[in-house]
Each structure stands twice: as structure tokens, then as C-alpha cells.
Automatic annotation (TrEMBL):
Keyword flag Transmembrane helix: yes
GO CC terms in record: plasma membrane
Record keyword Signal present: yes
This protein's name: TIR domain-containing protein
Taxonomic source organism: Fundulus heteroclitus
Length: 961
């Protein structure tokens, strides 16, 4: 520390070298000692659309490298057995946590306490047997909790105390036996709306056992519980609208006791399927809820069917009736006679083979009829009486033929389901009366010929499903009558021929599925798709589309599909080497997604994508391209997702000048490039996700930048980077890329070590010499530095000084100080002086006493003689006083010479010489003739600056004048 009095010295020539050495040492330290930065790569998971998804099914602990910004976390189907609050300490914005199908056995002490934003928690299919104290502490914002399929039998009184905002609780398929467990849950959840307790071991349900709970339930599911006694003696369910109860596996009758019909006055949907009780008890039950009931399910009750259906239909408000899982076999004319108010009737899964013609005659208001999963071989003639029918489900029967009168008079029908039957063929009049039909499902039949069924009828049909049949060709104008059709499913047939005009009339079609047929390239030479001007999605995957070269086609197959957004020609099975014509995509100016995966392409022309400037997603994986050119991908500058796995690529250099500034997702697995260069990564500034798994990397300095980028990148998620392995050199083979030591990649390592070692040796030598020859100065500077710090803190506090002046003198000059100076200044003039022999504090370091004395006095009087200049302690006192002089910029120093000292004798004492150039002084030898003038000048010097607000320096008159 310098005093600010010496001349500025030039910096040593070695200072810049020392800085370089420091930088080098810092870099080496960061590489060798510091832990790697937490880059955006995860060990077992990946992040997609802000949801962390963990793929490793053997995962046993919650990963700790999940980004804190994720809102969803999928840990389903893992081997996790325990969880703690520390597992989720950084996931403050997580809203959905899925722990379905793990091995979790205990929940206690708030394992989710840090998930303050969580809204949905799934713990299905675990091994929980008890919900301990504070199991869900901290989840004050949780709205949905699913605990089904565990072994829960005990619930702690504080387990649910934090779930004050819970809306849905599913604790079905556990081992709860008593109402006490339910009370412990319900008493803490005033906002609960849906409570599912299906398939537990409850034997009773009594309202007085939960009367202390504030229940706002809208839905309650108690089904599949062996409840023997159901009693409600109070209005505990004022808002309940959906109620499910019944157990088909129980043979013990349930006693129903609801004291007042108004207790369930809001129930509009009731499901008593499988309820084991008498018909009379069912009648009492139905009378309890018949004030507002609109939907009733009475499936699988083992009683007289006719009486049961009559009891159900006798409720005037019931409009939806489900009567399934019986062995009815036939429906007579009288079976549904009383169901005049029913609008929706479900008779599925009843083994029905025959329905009388007048079976539905009384049901003029019926809108929806479901007869699926029966054994009907024909369309029932009974439905012809249902003129108001809007939805008819005849799926999963054994219907083999359709006649022209099967759907006569069904002019209001909007949805017809005939899938999963045995229909062999259609007729041209089958659907003639279905003018309002919008959805027709005919998939999974045996249809081989359409027979013109869609050439002139069904003007309002929007969705037609013909997939999974045995169609081999689409003839001319086969769908001409379907002018309103949006979606056409023809996949999984055997189509190998498309007529030029097969899709005429489908001017409004937006989506057609033709995958998994036998369509060949020759079929695409036709103008089959030219009529589909509004088509947006076309799937031709898993066909046999194959070209032998990239020669342009005279008539590109999609040239008229200017609105097409998605095209797929992917293949599932190998079909031999092929190419794509250079103008295959001509006309697709609005194409956004193109899938050519596994087409065995050997090359792609540079002009392939010049017709698709808006392309955002491109999948050309699993081909044999080996190289890609910059010219080929340069036209698709809007590309966001690029799949290039299994292409046998040797390099990614084609990205460098392609200008793909919008690319966010890149998957390049199973290729042969070993080095990822800096230019490649920097050419993709928007990259958010990259997957280079199953490539063989060079573990040498060529990949040093890539490895550093993996560790440091905060923008790009590098998927499964822990599974990146080395292939070269041999000593690193089969080792992880992350284990490669970057220290060996520092350039000129030998020279750096030499310079570093030299700098360190020079630093030690310089420090040793400085300490040996300037030990006293360093010691003084240390104390001066602390004095300066003390003064910086205290100089504005205006603390009064203890003395008027500190007298600095040599012990040889003490007689003059005691005999002359002290009597005059203290005795006559009344100044308070500080003398070291009298006022220094015993036991305190001398340097500290000097500093305290100088800063504790308004002035410092230096009594200078030859002996004074030679004294080490006097020199330190002058140094401290001069430092204060220049620090405070005030006249605080008075120089008194006891003897005349020539200037040349002051040269060795450079500090004193500099002070004389800037500061006036008094001389005692020259005042011998007029001592009164000397003492008056000294008095004036002591008086100057006595005002604390005085900023000007009052100088003495030169005593030599």
C-alpha cells in the first residue's frame, strides 16, 4: 500500500504475462476442479412441450435434473418405492405429477410439500397400505387426486388436512372398510365435488357418521362395495346429481333407508347396476329419487326383467335408460310399452337375436337407440317405427346384408354405427332415406364392393369409415353423392386401383386415409386426387409406392392439392430400393408436414422441396440416403422438426449454409457421424431439442467444443446424452462421451505449463525480496491502510479531537520539548498536547498508539533534528501524519526544525524533502533573536483550521523570511 506521496512508477514488464498466467490457471482450475455446469440434458428423461417424460422403466429414484420450469412430470410405470419432499424441491410451477404404477409403499411427512402449484396428482397402481400423517401437506392447490388400485386400509387424521381445494378424489379399488376413514377424508375437503370409492370393502353407509363434514358433492360412486346397510337420516347431499351404487359380486341384500325423499332431490343420474336387493326395495329406492331423475342404469340386476323395466319407465322424468348385461335374447312388443318418455335407450350386450316389429311402437320420442354387442343378423324392422331417431348403434352384431328398406323413414337419423359386423356388400339404395345422416361407420366388415351406395344419396354425410374391409378398387365417381363429406377412412383394405375420377364429388373433403393398402406408383399416375381441391391431410403410408429414379413426372399426382398440409408415404416393411421424382411434391405450396420414413430412398433430388416452402415437419428417417445436400433443404426455411435417423449419414455439414434458423427439433439417431462441429450447432440458433443417440463419437479434441456445448447449453435439450459412447480411439472405445477429459485438449499444454510455472516462481521470489527488504514499510502500510479504512468511516461523523496537537520528537530532543515547548504551549497558551512518553497507552502496539495519537489530535507537530531523521519510529510518525495531510486536504502538519539542516542532507529522506517543497515550516535557531515571534507563529499554526467546517488550508509564513 503506497502513501500517495511517491512519484508514480511504471508497471513491471512482466505484469501482462502474469495476467495471462492467471487466466490460464483459472481455466485449468475450472476444468480440473470445478464441477461441470448443469446443462440442459437429462439422465433418464426428456422434456416435450414443458412436460418431463421419463422413459427408463427401471428408474428407482426421482430424477433430480428436471428443469424447474416444467409443468408436467410423467413418472409412470417405474420402480420407485419411496418419495421425499427433497425429490421435488425445485419444481415450484409443476401442475401435473403422474406416479402411476410404481412400487410406492408409504406417504408420510409431506413428500409433496414443495409442489405448491400442483393441481393433479396420480398415484394409481402402487403399493400404499396407509396414508400417514401429513401425506399431502403443502398441496393446498391440488384439485384432482387419484389413488385407485392400491391397498389402502388406514387413513391418518391429518393425511388430507391440506387438500382444502380438492375437487376430485378417486380412492377406488382399495381396502377401506369403515365410514371413519371416509370421514377423515371428507372433513378436510369442503370443495370436493366428485368422490369415487368404487370397489372397496365398505359394509355400511350411514349419514350420521359424516354429519360434521361440509359436503358439496356433485358425484358419488359407491359401486362394487359389499354395502348391506345404506341409511340417510339427514340432508348431507344437497347438491348430489350423480349417484352410483351396487355390487354384482355380492349375494347379501342391501337395506335401503332414506328417511326423506328430499334428501336426494338433486340426483339426476342414478346407476344401480348389479344391486343385490328385492324388487320391492328397488321400487322404494326409485321412489326416493324420482323427483329429478333423468338418467337411470339398471344393468345386470337379477330379477324379473319386465317388472324392473316397468318400474324404471314408470318414473316420468327418466329420459335416458340403460338396460344392459342381461340374457334377453328377444324383445317382445310389450317389454318397453311403458317407456313412452324415454329419449335414449341402451340395450347393449344382451344377446338379443330378435326384436318384434312393434317393440318400439310406444317410444315415439326415442332419439338414441343402442343395440351394440348383441346377436342380430338383420337390421330390426322395429326401428322403422322410430321416425324421430337421430342416433342408431348396431355395431358388434352379426349383420351380413343390408336391404333397401332397412333404414326407410329414418329421415332424421344423424349417426349410424354398423361397424364390426359381417356385411359383405352394399346396395345402391341402402341409405336412400338418410338425408340428414352425418356419420356412418362401416369399418371392420367384409365389404368388397360399394355397389354405388354413395353415388347419389347422403348429401349431408361428413364422416365415412370404410376401413378394415376388403375393397380392392375405387371405381369412377364412387362417392359422387357425398358432397358434404369431410373425412373418409379407406385404410386397411386391399385397394390397388384408383380410377381417374374415383373421388369426384368430394370437393369439401379435408382428410382421407388410404394407408395400409396395395396402392402402387402406377395408381398415382392417374388424376385420382385432382378433384380433392380442399384436401388438407392425405395418408398413403404402408402402400407399395416405388419409383426407380428421380426423373420428373409428366403429371405430378398432387399438383392440384394446393391446400394440403399433411402428406405421408411412410412404409412399415421393406420394399426394395427406390427414389422420389424431383417434382413429386409439385403443387403442395401449403404443405406443413411430410413423412417419408422407411421408404428405402437412396437419393433425394435437390429440387425435391422447392415446391414446399412452408414445410415445418420433415421425416425422412430409416432410408439409405447417406448424404444430404444443403441445396436440398435450403428451400424449407420454416422447418421446425427434422427426423434424420438411420440414414447412414457421415456428416452434418449440410446444415452450415442451409439457413434453417427456425429448426427447433432434430432427431438423428443411428447414423455414422462421429464429430459434431461448432459450425453445425451455430447454424441452428433456435434448436431446442436434439437427439444423437446411438451414434459412435470420436473422443478426441475434435469433439471438445461439442462436449463443452452439451454441458453449458441452457437452451437446447440434448436427449439421453449419458448414452453417447465413444468409438475412437481404441483406449476410449465403449466409454461414455461425457467421461472424456477435456484437459488434454488445451493447446500448447507444455508451453502453458512452462509459462505458468515460471510466473509462479518469479512471484514467490519477488514476494520474498519484498518482505526481506521492505518489511518495516509493509508493516507500516498495513496499519496505515486500516487507519484509512477507519477514517473513511468516521471522518464525516465530526467526533471531537482528544488533543490539540501530537508532538513527534526524538528522545534526544526531549529536554527542549519538556523545557521549552511544553511550558509555553500547555502552561501559557493552554493547548492540550499528546506526548508519547506520557500519553501512549501501555501494552498497546506502538504503531497503533502512533496512529491513534495522530488521528486523535487536530495537529501534528514534528520536532525535526538530525537524530529525528535517523529514527525509524519518527519516520513512521511522519509517514502517518503526511498520509493524513493528503487524505484530509487540510493543514494538519506543523514542521519545527531544532537545527539548520542543509537541503542536500535531506536528500536521503525523500519524504521530508517533498514535504518541505509543499509545506512551510518554523526554525528554532533562526528565532533566537525574536523568540516571541516564534511562539506567536506556532500559536497561529495551532489555531488554524480549528473550525470544523473550514475547508481552506491556512499556511504559515515562511520563518526564513
Amino acid at each position: 500500500v503506497t502513501m500517495g506521496l511517491e512519484d508514480d512508477k511504471p508497471k513491471p514488464r512482466g505484469e501482462s504475462s502474469f495476467s495471462n498466467c492467471s487466466i490460464t490457471f483459472l481455466m485449468i482450475y475450472m476444468i480440473c476442479v470445478s464441477p461441470p455446469a448443469s446443462g440442459f440434458f437429462l439422465r433418464s428423461c426428456r422434456v416435450s412441450q414443458n412436460v418431463a417424460i421419463c422413459m427408463d422403466s427401471q428408474l428407482k429414484v426421482v430424477p433430480q435434473d428436471i428443469p424447474p420450469t416444467v409443468t408436467g412430470f410423467d413418472l409412470s410405470k417405474k420402480q420407485i418405492s419411496s418419495i421425499q419432499a427433497s425429490n421435488f424441491k425445485n419444481l415450484q410451477v409443476l401442475t401435473d405429477l403422474n406416479l402411476h404404477e410404481n412400487h410406492i409403499t408409504n406417504l408420510h411427512n409431506g413428500p409433496f410439500a414443495n409442489l405448491i402449484s400442483l393441481r393433479k396428482l396420480t398415484l394409481n397402481n402402487n403399493r400404499l397400505s396407509k396414508l400417514g400423517d401429513g401425506a399431502f401437506d403443502g398441496l393446498s392447490n391440488l384439485a384432482e387426486l387419484r389413488l385407485n388400485t392400491n391397498k389402502i386400509s388406514v387413513v391418518s387424521s391429518t393425511a388430507f388436512q391440506s387438500l382444502t381445494r380438492l375437487k376430485l378424489l378417486d380412492i377406488s379399488q382399495n381396502k377401506l372398510e369403515t365410514m371413519a376413514n371416509l370421514r377423515l377424508m371428507l372433513q378436510h375437503m369442503p370443495q370436493l365435488q366428485e368422490f369415487v370409492v368404487r370397489r372397496n370393502s365398505l359394509k355400511t353407509f350411514r349419514s350420521w357418521e359424516v354429519t360434521n363434514c361440509s359436503l358439496n358433492l356433485r358425484a358419488l360412486d359407491l359401486s362394487r362395495n359389499p354395502i348391506r346397510d345404506f341409511r340417510i337420516t339427514g340432508d348431507i347431499f344437497p347438491n348430489l346429481t350423480r349417484f352410483i351404487i351396487g355390487d354384482s359380486s355380492s349375494f347379501i341384500p342391501m337395506k335401503w333407508d332414506v328417511k326423506n325423499k328430499t334428501f336426494l332431490r338433486q340426483v339426476s343420474s342414478l346407476d344401480i347396476s348389479g344391486l343385490h336387493t328385492t324388487v320391492d326395495d328397488i321400487q322404494v329406492l326409485l321412489e326416493t329419487v324420482n323427483l329429478s331423475l333423468t338418467s337411470l342404469s339398471v344393468n345386470g340386476i337379477k330379477h324379473n326383467w319386465t317388472r324392473l323395466i316397468n318400474l324404471s319407465c314408470a318414473i316420468p322424468t327418466v329420459s335416458k335408460l340403460q338396460f344392459c348385461h342381461y340374457n334377453l335374447r328377444s324383445i317382445s312388443s310389450y317389454f318397453l310399452k311403458m317407456c313412452t318418455n324415454v329419449i335414449e335407450l341402451d340395450l347393449s350386450n344382451n344377446h338379443i337375436k330378435r326384436i318384434d316389429t312393434n317393440a318400439f311402437k310406444s317410444m315415439e320420442s326415442l332419439r338414441i337407440l343402442k343395440l351394440s354387442q348383441n346377436k342380430l343378423s338383420l337390421v330390426p324392422t322395429a326401428i322403422r317405427t322410430l321416425r324421430n331417431l337421430s342416433e342408431l348403434d348396431l355395431s358388434h352384431n352379426v349383420i351380413s346384408t343390408l336391404g333397401c328398406q332397412d333404414f326407410s323413414n329414418q329421415t332424421k337419423l344423424k349417426k349410424l354405427s354398423l361397424h364390426n359386423n359381417s356385411i359383405l356388400a352394399l346396395t345402391n339404395c341402402t341409405f336412400k332415406d338418410l338425408e340428414q345422416l352425418q356419420t356412418l361407420t362401416l369399418q371392420s366388415n367384409q365389404i368388397s364392393d360399394l355397389k354405388g351406395a354413395f353415388k347419389q344419396y347422403l348429401p349431408n354425410l361428413k364422416r365415412l369409415h370404410l376401413n378394415g374391409n376388403k375393397l380392392t378398387a375405387i371405381g369412377k365417381e364412387e362417392f359422387k353423392g357425398l358432397t358434404s363429406l369431410w373425412n373418409l377412412s379407406l385404410h386397411q383394405n386391399q385397394i390397388n386401383n384408383l380410377h381417374n375420377d374415383c373421388f369426384v364429388g368430394l370437393g369439401n373433403l379435408t382428410d382421407i386415409q388410404l394407408q395400409s393398402n396395395d396402392i402402387k406408383a402406377q395408381s398415382l399416375k392417374t388424376k385420382a386426387f385432382h378433384a380433392l381441391a380442399k384436401l388438407r391431410r392425405l395418408d398413403l403410408g404402408n402402400n407399395h409406392i416405388k419409383y426407380f429414379n428421380s426423373t420428373p413426372l409428366p403429371d405430378p399426382p398432387f399438383c392440384n392439392l394446393s391446400h394440403l398440409e399433411e402428406l405421408s408415404i411412410h412404409a412399415q416393411h421393406h420394399r426394395g430400393k427406390s427414389s422420389l421424382p424431383s417434382n413429386f411434391l409439385e403443387g403442395l405450396k401449403n404443405l406443413l408436414r411430410f413423412n417419408a420414413r422407411n421408404c428405402q430412398l437412396t437419393s433425394l433430388d435437390n429440387d425435391t422441396f422447392m415446391y414446399t416452402p412452408k414445410l415445418e415437419r420433415l421425416d425422412i428417417s430409416s432410408n439409405d440416403l447417406r448424404t444430404l445436400s444443403t441445396q436440398m433443404i435450403a428451400p424449407i426455411r420454416n422447418l421446425r422438426s427434422f427426423y434424420i435417423s438411420r440414414l447412414s449419414l457421415q456428416s452434418l455439414d449440410f446444415f452450415v449454409d442451409a439457413n434453417l434458423t427456425n429448426l427447433e427439433f432434430l432427431q438423428g439417431r443411428h447414423n455414422q457421424y462421429s464429430v459434431i462441429t461448432e459450425d453445425v450447432i451455430k447454424s441452428l440458433p433456435s434448436l431446442a431439442y436434439v437427439d444423437f443417440k446411438y451414434n459412435t463419437f470420436y473422443c478426441d479434441c475434435d469433439n471438445a467444443w461439442f462436449l463443452n456445448w452439451i454441458i453449458a447449453s441452457k437452451q437446447t435439450q440434448v436427449n439421453d446424452v449419458y448414452e453417447y459412447y465413444c468409438n475412437y480411439p481404441d483406449e476410449f472405445k465403449d466409454k461414455r462421451l461425457l467421461d472424456f477429459d477435456l484437459i488434454s485438449c488445451l493447446k500448447d499444454m507444455g508451453f502453458i505449463c512452462f509459462v505458468s510455472t515460471t510466473c509462479m516462481i518469479l512471484f514467490v521470489i519477488a514476494g520474498s525480496f519484498t518482505y526481506h527488504f521492505m518489511r518495516a514499510q509493509l508493516y507500516c502500510a498495513y496499519h496505515l491502510f486500516w487507519a484509512w479504512l477507519f477514517d473513511s468511516k468516521c471522518k464525516n461523523q465530526q467526533v471531537p479531537h482528544q488533543y490539540d496537537a501530537f508532538v513527534s520528537y526524538n528522545s534526544n530532543d526531549e529536554p527542549w520539548v519538556i523545557g521549552e515547548l511544553l511550558p509555553k504551549l500547555e502552561g501559557e497558551q493552554g493547548w492540550r498536547l499528546c506526548l508519547h512518553h506520557r500519553d501512549f497507552e501501555p501494552g498497546k502496539p506502538i504503531a497503533d498508539n502512533i496512529t491513534d495519537a495522530i488521528y486523535g489530535s487536530r495537529k501534528t507537530i514534528c520536532v525535526i533534528s538530525r537524530r529525528y531523521l535517523e529514527s525509524e519510529w519518527c519516520s513512521r510518525e511522519v509517514q502517518t501524519a503526511s498520509f493524513r495531510l493528503f487524505d484530509e486536504k487540510r493543514d494538519v502538519l506543523i514542521l519545527v526544525f531544532l537545527e539548520d539542516i542543509p537541503t542536500y542532507l535531506l536528500s536521503p529522506f525523500h519524504r521530508m524533502r517533498k514535504l518541505l517543497k509543499k509545506q512551510t515550516y518554523l526554525s528554532w535557531p533562526r528565532a533566537a533573536a525574536q523568540p516571541e515571534v516564534f511562539w506567536e507563529k506556532l500559536k497561529q499554526a495551532l489555531q488554524s483550521g480549528s473550525n470544523s467546517n473550514e475547508d481552506n488550508v491556512l499556511s504559515l509564513t515562511d520563518a526564513r523570511e
